[in-house]
Amino acid sequence: xxxxxxxxxxxxxxxxQRTVIRSPASIQSERKISIVFDIDYTxxxxxxxxxxxxxxxxxxxxxxxxxxxxxxxxxxxxxxNVEISFFSGGKKDRNQKLLREIKMNTGESFLNIAGNVYxxxxxxxxxxxxxxxxxxxxxxxxxxxxxxxxxxxxxNSLFTHEGQDKNMLWLGKTYHHYEDFNKTYADIxxxxxxxxxxxxxFQQWFxxxxxxxxxxxxxxxxxxxxxTSTVGFLDFIEANKKTYIPYDEKITSRYRSLFSKQFFNNxxxxxxxxxxxx
Length: 278
Ligand SMILES: [Mg+2]
Prior knowledge:
Blueprint: H1 2-21, H2 24-30, E1 33-37, E2 44-46, E3 55-58, E4 61-65, H3 69-77, E5 82-87, H4 92-101, H5 110-113, E6 117-118, E7 124-125, H6 132-135, E8 136-137, E9 150-154, E10 168-170, H7 202-209, H8 211-228, H9 233-244, H10 253-257, H11 261-266, H12 271-277
Parallel strand pairs: 1-5, 1-9, 5-6, 9-10
Antiparallel strand pairs: 2-4, 3-4, 7-8
Helix pairs in contact: 2-8, 8-9
The site of magnesium ion (MG) has 7 residues, from loops.
């Protein structure tokens, strides 16, 4: 009996010691952060060029995986306290098939690393009338996410549930993907293509195709901020999103500096693009 009491006392002592030596900052940084990615027009979008090697065919639809999506998901998934989920208004079966086909450099699929995949049936209906994203919301609370530590990244801010504005990171205006800015001209007047999604100038085109790089920078810095300062994950995003995400569609020195000179110069491969940028 004495030895049992001694062991219990020792366990209690060790537990207390662990609690005492942890600083509040380290406890905070170990708590789970949830990052929830929308899929359509966030991770992928309908392909405009079927010859693009980065196009995936699922249920007779061709999807282009957006630039930087793989690098971003792979990098974020390396953080031990970060859980990545996906939430699309598409059907569960389609979402899972699509995420299974998107592979990172490690060979793992997006589906493999996902904590959860939420779909149409997980949307929360808030009204009978209106557009899809006005009637149905991505309510993070009823899905049991910690609203203090969850960000939903989406091209459509209408999906935000009431009271969860701080949990939504809007990507900015949506555009179709064009590998080359000059290819946009061929689609002007094409009735099969949503005209409002065609970039009108080089800046719109350049920033749109790289937007996940800007999102990635913001999220990584927010994770870092929480570990190294008193500014929490969501507070950092809220305070800095307008600096990181080019909502005003202007290429500034900040955006240039994120890319190597060679990468940036390669974007200026044709005279029309150069003229448009000037
Ligand atoms: Mg979307």
